[in-house]
Every structure is written in C-alpha cells, then in structure tokens.
Amino acid sequence: MKLQINRQESIAIVGAGIAGLSCATHLQSLGYKVEIFEKSRGPSGRMSTRYGDGWTADHGAQYFTARDPLFIKELDSWIKNNVAATWMPAVRVFEDDQLRESFSKEHRYVGLPDMSSPGRYLAKSLSVQFNQTIDQIERKNGKWLLHTKESEQLGQNFDYLILALPAPQTFALTKSMNKEINQISKAADMRGCWTVMARFQGQPTLPFDAMFVNHEIISWVCRNNSKPGRDGLDCWTIHANPEWSQQNIEFEKDEVTALILNCAKKLGLNCQDAEITTHRWRYASGFMDPKPECHFNPSSKLGLCGDWLHGGRVEGAWLSGYKLAGQIIESQSNSKPSD
Ligand SMILES: Cc1cc2nc3c(=O)[nH]c(=O)nc-3n(C[C@H](O)[C@H](O)[C@H](O)COP(=O)(O)OP(=O)(O)OC[C@H]3O[C@@H](n4cnc5c(N)ncnc54)[C@H](O)[C@@H]3O)c2cc1C
Questions:
Q1: pLDDT (tens digit per residue) in 61-96
Q2: What is the pLDDT of residues 175-202, one digit of tens each?
Q3: Looking at the whole model, is its pTM more than 0.90?
Q4: Are 250 and 130 in contact (CB under 8 A)?
Q5: What backbone phi and psi angles, to 5 degrees, belong to 338?
Q6: CA distance 215 to 266
Q7: pLDDT tens digits for 295-325?
Q8: In which order are the strands placed within the sheet that holds 134-140?
Q9: What are the residue boundaries of the structural domains of the chain, listed by start?
Q10: What is the side-by-side strand order in the sheet with 33-37?
C-alpha cells in the first residue's frame, strides 16, 4: 500500500514552543501547509531567555539532555548550525546543610547563544503569527475556526487543529467541547516555578557553576555566564522548588523574592549587592505517568502535543510534536488507501 497524503489540507498549530515547532517542521517537510499562532512576540515558549541592560539569563529551561536517537539526530543538526552546544558546568549538590560533588555523568546541552536559539532557528523556516492569543476554538462544517483575543475571528478555516500548549491552557480551550481531551489535560498536574535572576558587578567566588538543592525552598542555582556564548554581567538564575512555588504561586513578588534570597544566602550565594528580577511561571513542569506521548483524534482532526504528554522536559516536548506529526500522516494513509 502506498502512502497517499492530502497536502492541500491546512493545519493550524497553537503554540510556538519546542513541541509546536517540532510538529510543524515535520509536517511541513512532507509538504503540508502549516500555520502557527503564538501569543508571545517570539518563539520557544519555556525555553526562554530574559534580556536586560548588559545582562541575559535563561530563566526557563536551564539545559537539556538527549537520549532518544530521533532527538539526538535533531540535536546534531542544532549543533552543526551553531544554535546549541555542550555545557560542562562544575556541578554540586546541597543537601543536609552540606555541599557535595555531583555523581551525575549526564551530558548537558544548551541553546547557543541563549536557550531560545533552537526554537528561533526552527521558526525561521515556518509561518508563525506572533502576538496572537487563541482564546476560543470551534468546529463548524468539518473545519476548525480560531478566535484570537487580538483580532477576533481569524479569516481562515483549518482542516486540522493542533494544540501545543501546557495542560491547563489546553483544558481552558477545550473544556466546553471535548470530554476525552478534557480528561487527558486534567490528568497532568502542572506546577509553577518562582525564578529569581541576580546580576553582580563582579563575580561571586563560589566553587560551582550550578547546584542542585535538596530539601530547601530553592531547588536549583546556576551561573548563566558559565554556559557557552553568554557574556555581560555575571548573572545567576535561582529556581524555587515546584512544590513550594505552587503553594506560594499567588504571593506577592517582593515577599517571595525575599524568602528565596534568604535561602540563597544560606546556600552561599549572597545577593545583597545584586540587581534582582523575579519571574513567575504559572505552568512550569508536570507530566502524565504513563506517558501518552501525544494525542490525536482522527475524526475531529484535533491533536495535542507538549512536554506534559511525554515526560515533561525539552526532549519530551520535541518528541511529542514529532510523534503527533507521524500520527497525522499515518491517519491519512489509513483513510485513503491506494495501490
Ligand atoms: C523554570 C523552568 C525550568 C525548566 N528547566 C528545564 C530543564 O532544565 N531541562 C528541561 O529539559 N526542561 C526544563 N523545563 C521544561 C521545558 O522548558 C519544557 O519541557 C519545554 O520547553 C516545553 O515545551 P512545549 O512546547 O511543550 O511548551 P511551551 O514551551 O510552554 O510552549 C507553549 C507555547 O504556547 C504559547 N501559548 C500558550 N497559550 C496560548 C494561546 N492561548 N494562544 C497562543 N499561544 C499560546 C506559549 O506562549 C508558548 O510559547 C523547565 C521549565 C521551566 C518553566
């Protein structure tokens, strides 16, 4: 049986994070017409970098690993195109009031020169409409209609709709229409993350570039300038742990910042003379176990992808988008067999 693909059918993807970009890249490489809608002014979602006056900081994903051969191949192409590189930090673990060596032999990778670079690289070859927040979706006469907060209804109807969003945002868009999808998106428990970025005029003398922290309100501390291609003021990213962040997600920024900086001081990072910026991630991490990888309903032509369906990290997000594209292609070959 020969694969017969109807490349005239149009596909809308909501979300230009790494999952949406991976799905779009795979579909477009096979000749599909794909349009991405993204609420922010740039791509990459949680693989993101904050730019300030003389400083930068990766304030979402800190690094990624690559274990699946499909993702390793993708990573190779990112490295070849200078948008990702290996990162070899001096890593320590803080536990029971003591600092110790890390036993992890993990190979770590980062975007080059910042975490959003792989996403920007993928988006360059795709059609992405930025500053478009999809706030309503509707299936009418076999087509998907999208409404945006910025410009009401979009002038185009689509055959397929892919939501490449965190679980709670997927739920918000589908809650009135699809029970099956509601159940899936409700099953993923996503937590927030409070992030503090601290800039120093000099460089604090610490025996590590990155530190995992156990049993404290902070779970991660990292010197951004230890990553390849970063320059400017010495900048440290501090993440509060997911449980504490979620419990305190509605707290005032100043209150949360003071608590995190107090804890950082106990860990050896005194930020008294640093300039501080704090960011709240409402939906930072979470995943389903066992992992569905992605979800596709061939009769409504609605698909879901994202990290929460595939283990909850950068590699999983990319794989989820890639695998959803594969399911869409397969569904077409099943519905239109030919000799
Ligand atoms: C603080 C933090 C630390 C992390 N650390 C690591 C790490 O060290 N290693 C690792 O591998 N992973 C880490 N992660 C997780 C990693 O960032 C994610 O797994 C991955 O980036 C998720 O990609 P995604 O495409 O599934 O979702 P996202 O990146 O969230 O993409 C979703 C996109 O949809 C857009 N969007 C949302 N709603 C709408 C709407 N209504 N209309 C239009 N667009 C919309 C968003 O703006 C976003 O661009 C971290 C995440 C955070 C927040």
A1: 999 999 999 999 999 999 999 999 999 999 999 999
A2: 988 788 889 999 998 999 999 999 999 9
A3: yes
A4: no
A5: -150, 160
A6: 13
A7: 999 999 999 999 999 999 999 999 999 999 9
A8: 134-140, 143-148, 152-158
A9: 10-335
A10: 128-129, 33-37, 10-14, 160-163, 302-304, 295-297
| 142, two tokens | 């076999």
pLDDT averaged over every residue in the chain: 94
What letters, b where the CB count within 10 A reaches 16 and e where it falls short, cover 247-270?
ebbeeeeeebbebbbebbeebbbe
The residue nearest atom 14 of ligand 1, judged by CA position, is 61
Residue with CA nearest ligand 1 atom 20:
314
Cα(164) to centroid(ligand 1), Å: 9
Q: How far is the CA of 60 from the centre of ligand 1 (A)?
A: 8
Matching CATH number, 10-335, of 3.40.50.300, 3.50.50.60, 1.10.150.120, 3.40.50.2000: 3.50.50.60
Structure tokens at 241: 């742990």
Given the structure tokens 């292609």, which residue do they identify? 329
Write the single-letter amino acid at 22: S
Residue with tokens 């099943």: 334
251, 240 Cβ separation under 8 angstroms:
no
